[in-house]
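Regression test case RT-17, inverse folding.

Input:
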């Protein structure tokens, strides 16, 4: 084996990056983590205040409405956005054509939701859903614009612009939402918050990105992008419908309050995973796309992505499971304690996300959206089967099967890259295993601290501090390679900052 091959074989070694790409990746990752962390940190604080001011039933109404809007948004934003990022040479004609097409689709879907809103409200025996859905669906138009701006930023890897737009929008919209809730606006406070976030974010991007749609449109360009994007659109639609079908069923079989508890239980782990794993994967798609013809480099980059994101995400999920009850009681008050079982189950499900997303981003970067679509179909068949089997046994069994489906899906997602990248299932799980083992030990230790008998605040502080120290100590003691890589990278970034 040559020296070059040995370097590329190193799990995620720096040599896997093309010259100059590592600095771009690290810079992009820094700003994505800042964006996700800052935005979701502010959003988290806002959601806590709103949860205290509003009832679970009011949250449940918005949760139901958001399901329909989220599914509609797939048609507006998914597929073409990724195709613009993945395409080697994308020019003004490509971006303008996709923008006008997305705007047209948004208008059609808004009209559909506007007309269907009374029927949706009647189906769930909540006629008050109709006016709220009609107003909140305006988000679709904002999404048509911001999706193109996001593609421009991603191609240039200028993620600091997303940071400023998102942070400004979440702070301003959160303030407006809290003021409306305090004034007794009820569910409309959440509508104001979500609409103003999209509007303010779009306005900031308008001035910072400075991309403007031209009077340009080409069906030929749309067809080229569609040949790649339609498979991703279908994949995203399947995934979105599957992820939201739980909410649709819970809202119908049970009630909006139970749906609110399920959504709130999902919110905490999702926030953490989106911040760390989401940031890594957002940066990795454009980075991987630059090396899509170099199998060795791509494998090294995917391995580094999996080892790094799992090293950070898995212990967060284990720790969150351990501190769930005192955290919910302290932050949201006891009226939200029914969400704790859902929270713990969703932590198990999200723990497998690093292996999902790294493999899927590699497949997208190689332009194999056909493989991506096939994987989504297989996984969703498994998931839907598990859902309908579990419905007669109650809501907790329904949600408990989600981690099992997530585990099975790791093998489905990893399978194609055995051939495409030469990255075997055995290698992938060998890269993941240290994080899972250390996290399991840490989580058990942290959960044991809950029996000390202190109050909720003291218990939570002790658990969080002990968990971080214990996990870092175990990683240092067992000389985990990813721990060394992260500390070395942190030192490198610190030195550059000082210069």
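Golden output:
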């Amino acid at each position: 084996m040559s020296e070059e091959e040995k370097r590329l074989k190193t799990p995620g070694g720096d040599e896997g990056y093309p010259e100059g790409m590592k600095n771009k990746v690290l810079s992009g990752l820094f700003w994505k983590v800042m964006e996700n962390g800052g935005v979701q940190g502010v959003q988290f604080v806002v959601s806590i205040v709103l949860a205290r001011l509003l009832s679970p039933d009011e949250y449940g109404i918005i949760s139901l409405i958001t399901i329909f809007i989220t599914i509609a948004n797939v048609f507006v934003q998914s597929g073409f956005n990724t195709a613009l990022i993945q395409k080697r040479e994308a020019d003004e004609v490509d971006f303008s054509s996709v923008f006008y097409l997305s705007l047209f689709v948004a208008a059609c879907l808004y009209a559909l939701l506007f007309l269907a809103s009374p029927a949706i409200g009647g189906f769930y025996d909540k006629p008050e859903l109709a006016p709220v859905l009609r107003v909140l669906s305006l988000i679709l138009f904002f999404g048509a614009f911001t999706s193109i701006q996001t593609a421009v930023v991603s191609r240039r890897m200028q993620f600091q612009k997303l940071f400023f737009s998102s942070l400004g929008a979440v702070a301003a919209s959160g303030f407006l939402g809290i003021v409306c809730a305090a004034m007794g606006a009820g569910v409309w406070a959440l509508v104001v918050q979500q609409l103003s976030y999209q509007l303010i974010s779009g306005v900031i991007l308008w001035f910072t990105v400075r991309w403007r749609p031209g009077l340009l449109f080409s069906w030929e360009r749309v067809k080229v992008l569609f040949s790649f994007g339609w498979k991703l659109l279908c994949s995203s639609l399947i995934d979105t419908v599957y992820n939201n079908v739980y909410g649709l069923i819970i809202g119908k079989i049970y009630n909006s309050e139970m749906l609110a508890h399920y959504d709130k239980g999902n919110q905490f782990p999702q926030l953490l995973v989106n911040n760390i794993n989401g940031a890594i994967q957002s940066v990795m798609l454009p980075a991987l796309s630059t090396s899509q013809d170099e199998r060795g480099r791509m494998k090294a980059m995917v391995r580094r992505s999996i080892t790094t994101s799992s090293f950070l995400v898995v212990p967060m999920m284990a720790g969150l499971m351990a501190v769930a009850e005192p955290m919910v009681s302290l932050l949201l008050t006891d009226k939200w304690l029914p969400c704790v079982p859902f929270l713990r189950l969703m932590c198990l499900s999200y723990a497998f996300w690093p292996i999902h997303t790294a493999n899927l981003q590699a497949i997208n970067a190689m332009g194999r959206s056909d493989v991506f679509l096939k994987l989504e179909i297989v996984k969703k068949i498994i998931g839907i089967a598990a859902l309908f089997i579990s419905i007669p046994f109650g809501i907790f069994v329904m949600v408990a099967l989600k981690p099992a489906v997530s585990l099975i899906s790791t093998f489905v997602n990893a399978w194609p890259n055995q051939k495409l990248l030469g990255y075997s299932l055995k290698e992938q799980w060998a890269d993941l295993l240290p994080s899972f083992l250390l996290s399991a030990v840490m989580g058990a230790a942290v959960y044991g601290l809950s029996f000390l008998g202190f109050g909720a605040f003291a218990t939570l502080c002790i658990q969080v501090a002990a968990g971080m120290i214990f996990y870092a100590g175990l990683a240092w003691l067992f000389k985990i390679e990813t721990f060394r890589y992260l500390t070395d990278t942190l030192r490198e970034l610190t030195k550059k900052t000082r210069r």
